[in-house]
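Write out this protein's structure.
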Amino acid sequence: MYRALQINKDEAGYRTELKALDESALPEGDVTVEVAWSTLNYKDGLAITGKGPVVRKFPLTPGIDMAGTVLESSHPCWKPGDKVVLNGWGVGETHSGCLAQKVRLNGHWLVPLPPTFTERQAMAIGTAGYTAMLCVLALEKHGIKPTDGEILVTGANGGVGSVAIMLLAKLGYTVIASTGRPEEAAHLKALGASDIIDRKELSEPGKPLGKERWAGVIDSVGSTTLANACATTKYAGAVAACGLAGGADFPATVMPFILRGVTLYGIDSVMAPSAKRMEAWTRLARDLDVAKLEANTAEIGLAEAIDVGAKLLEGRVRGRVVVDVNRCVADVGT
């Protein structure tokens, strides 16, 4: 038996519960992992609450991230005792996921835990931090240097935004953080932001082209915020878009792209190939300030993930949340 969150949808409605499951509930896969830590991302909040069409089959365990130890493996790359990390690949959407004490996966989805990080630290990074690193890599490969000007980070209090601030600041960039919670200004500056702007400056409909300001942008909000970010990016600058917390629409014009040569990069962390994942995790091990990461991280038990997932969608969670899957404080039904 192992403990896990389980989502069901039937005549009784949509619900997420902490349950004790038999190992026969584990999905198909060639590697079984004992999960040490998981985490909560925006997508996990959508899955847990049912407020977004994330889960595609029922019953299913949510959780797109984990760090743990291989228990059994028929995959050539992994053996019992190996420390591994998982991000994405549809886990927690179509394949039962990692808000559980055990998970069974396709070995091709795993990457080795960087020796620089503990399992808990790896989940303090999680898909949010790994996605932030993919965004930073996109700006770097575009040729944007710290001397080119300010970098805008939207959704700054969220997982992607907060880790992006830490990474960019460590690399010498001047970071401007956009947030709807001005009371968090001191925290964001402690992470490395040089200045804070109210998200209202970007969330209201704007002009097709605004005053040039940003050398680059990392956006996890989408919608009007992304449109305004593109409209105010400098000539030949770049925008890395990785989220839709503010909406999936993009009410923009082509003007920033054809008149200023702005490039919009779409950042996919779910199906990114292994080589790109390895590059991101290698850079995280080199460029992330672990002390700042800890200050940006809260810890909860598995049973608490249901309530905290809802709070995350409401914008009431700062930074990153790690989940101790072996701390189950609620009654567990079968």
